[in-house]
Structure formats: structure tokens, C-alpha cells
Design brief:
This protein is mainly alpha-helical. It has nine helices and three strands; from the N terminus they run H-E-H-H-E-E-H-H-H-H-H-H. Helix 4 crosses helix 6.
Length: 233
């Protein structure tokens, strides 16, 4: 295979991977759904070769699992969710401490501006069903910017990758939780708490607030999963 062919092959599986990941995140490929290379190749309009590599990468991320010779979109269990959040609590508590210790003055200023933007967005959200989806997506963009800046301030790329992979696992449930009445308003209060502590350069308080924020989400996720009868383990 020539160099150009290898590049084209890599590009094909990367595109297949990104498309499939998004289909899983959007629940267009639903938790527990059985999949095959043929089905996915036909759905995406590509050959089986890039699909095979994309599935391999999705298995590494835990988004697709193999059982009894069949592949399925992974269906999280309540036990897995609790374990993931226990890991996130440890790592992200340390992460905000590093953000306090390592962040630049410019980054502190940007962080304050983003959380102010987040507060303004929530206070001015329409709250009607017609705009619910678009407002949710806007909120997620601001939320992502805030957390990416905290990652940047902490300067801990390996920790960031671990957290990113964990977040892929429960993204669909995060979307569901944000649609619950009042959750967005509670979320901004929790974000303001740990951001305020970072801006005050109080590492102990920042860590405490982040852990409290994640403990709250963990309880809500378990409640949501129990309500929708997710498997316990």
C-alpha cells in the first residue's frame, strides 16, 4: 500500500469512528443495540475495513462491547456509573487544586468571564419546549469551554484524557439529567462555587466544592438510572 493510500485509509476509519461515536452520543445507536460491521458499513456508506478499525477504537473507549461473539453498544450499569464517579471525584478534585497552583493570571481572568457568561445564559434562557434542545446545546458548549480551561490551567494532559474517556461513557445520561426541571440552575450554582474558590486561589475549598458537585451528579445519575431500570451490575 502506498503512502497516499495509507493516509486515505486512516482518514476513512477516523471519519467512521467520529461518526459512530456521535451516533452513540446522540443515542441514534441505542445502549444495548446489537451491531455488525455489515450493518454499520451500509449505514455509513463505506466499506467494512474502516468500520472494523473504528469499532476496535470504540471498544477501547468502552462504547462498544463484545459478548458471546456479538458486539453491542455498551449499556452502563449503575455499579459502573458509581465507580466512574468515584474515579472522577478523586481526579477532578485534584485537578482544580492544580488549576489554582498552576494557572496563569490570564487564565484566571478568562475563567471568571466564562462562569459569568454561564450565569447570564441561565438567567436569560427562555425555558420553553421549542428552544429546549438548542438551549441545551448552547449550555453544553459553555460548560465544555469552562472545563477545558480548568484542564488547561491544571496542565495535566494524562489526567485530562482519563476524564475525557470516562465522560464519553455517561454523556447520554448527562443530556437526560440536564432536561430535568431546575437542573441547569442548580448546576450553575455548583459551577460558581468551585470557580469562585479557584479565583480566590483557595485550593482546599476548590477541591471540596468540586467533589461536592460531582457527588451531587452521581446521586442524580443513580436516581435517573434506577428510574429507567438500568441494570444494577
Amino acid at each position: 500500500m502506498s503512502t497516499s493510500e495509507k493516509k486515505q485509509s486512516k482518514k476513512a476509519w477516523e471519519e467512521a469512528y467520529e461518526t459512530l461515536e456521535q451516533l452513540i452520543m446522540d443515542s441514534q445507536l441505542t445502549p444495548g443495540e446489537a451491531i455488525t460491521e455489515d450493518y454499520l458499513a451500509e449505514r455509513l456508506g463505506v466499506s467494512r475495513t474502516p468500520i472494523r478499525e473504528a469499532i476496535k477504537r470504540l471498544e477501547e473507549k468502552g462504547l462498544i462491547v463484545s459478548s458471546n461473539g456479538r458486539k453491542r453498544v455498551h449499556l452502563l450499569t449503575i455499579q459502573e456509573m458509581e465507580e466512574m464517579f468515584d474515579i472522577k471525584i478523586c481526579l477532578e478534585g485534584r485537578l482544580v487544586r492544580w488549576a489554582v497552583e498552576r494557572g496563569s493570571e490570564q487564565a484566571f481572568g478568562e475563567l471568571g468571564a466564562i462562569v459569568a457568561e454561564m450565569r447570564s445564559f441561565v438567567e436569560n434562557s427562555a425555558g420553553d419546549e421549542q428552544r429546549e434542545e438548542s438551549e441545551l446545546q448552547e449550555w453544553l458548549i459553555i460548560d465544555r469551554r469552562l472545563h477545558q480551561l480548568v484542564f488547561q490551567m491544571a496542565n495535566a494532559p494524562k489526567t485530562e484524557r482519563i476524564i475525557h474517556n470516562l465522560n464519553l461513557q455517561w454523556h447520554r445520561l448527562k443530556i437526560g439529567s440536564l432536561t430535568l426541571q431546575g437542573r441547569m440552575h442548580r448546576s450553575i450554582q455548583e459551577h460558581e462555587s468551585f470557580v469562585r474558590a479557584i479565583l480566590d486561589k483557595d485550593a482546599d475549598e476548590a477541591e471540596r466544592c468540586m467533589k461536592s458537585h460531582l457527588e451531587t451528579i452521581k446521586r442524580e445519575m443513580v436516581k435517573l438510572m434506577t428510574m429507567f431500570q438500568y441494570p444494577a451490575q
